[in-house]
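Narrative of activities, Objective 1.

The group set out to show that a structural description can be obtained from nothing but a protein's sequence at a throughput compatible with the screening campaign. Below is one input-output pair from the validation batch, recorded exactly as produced.
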Amino acid sequence: MKLPSKTLEQKLLADGYGQIIGVDEVGMGALAGPVVVCAVSFNKDFFKKSHEKLHWLRDSKQLLSYQREKFAAELLKQDDFSFQISYCHPKTIDKINIYQAARLAMRKAIAKLTKDQSLRTRVRKIINPGLSPWSLDLSRIVVLVDGKTKIQGMPLEQMAIVKGDRKVFAIACASILAKVYRDKMMVKYAKKFPGYGFEKHKGYGTKEHQVRLVKLGPCPIHRKSFKSVADLL
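Output recorded for this entry:
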């Protein structure tokens, strides 16, 4: 199995970038629950170490639950690594559509991750145009995005990478942390909305989920704009 590589991040750092941000989302195709985004950040010091316990790290979809938990715990131990989580609830997804909700969550996660207060203000201004303008050199930051399109409305250099979660180490890390976080959210929702089996399928459209959805009807965290749910309303 080909593992995600650190080659791109190392090249970008060697070219003079001071901060590499990887971003990925989970929950795009689920019928219930939020879409969750993680943005991770690495600096040069991280790539000077071997990180043997992270050697087999890969895209979250290629890992079992306990493996994701293990890698997530190991990432949290690293001094030269940081991350932020953001998400959009079903009401927002239904209002602006799943793609735009995921992109909104990406902008928020990146804004939280970036330590420079001026950059935070710039990103908030894009989300909220009422804020006053400013200028800042953002040339030392680059965002690596999973997928074929860049994030609109971000004042940062970006690289959109198709199947980036399978190719790029930073994006794979983001996918794992986002998945672990969302899974925990869905386990909590399972207690709040019993009977749907959220603790098992995490809101995705499995046969078991659809059977229970037909039997019980949609609950508050179901995405009413998705056809499988809308047909039951």
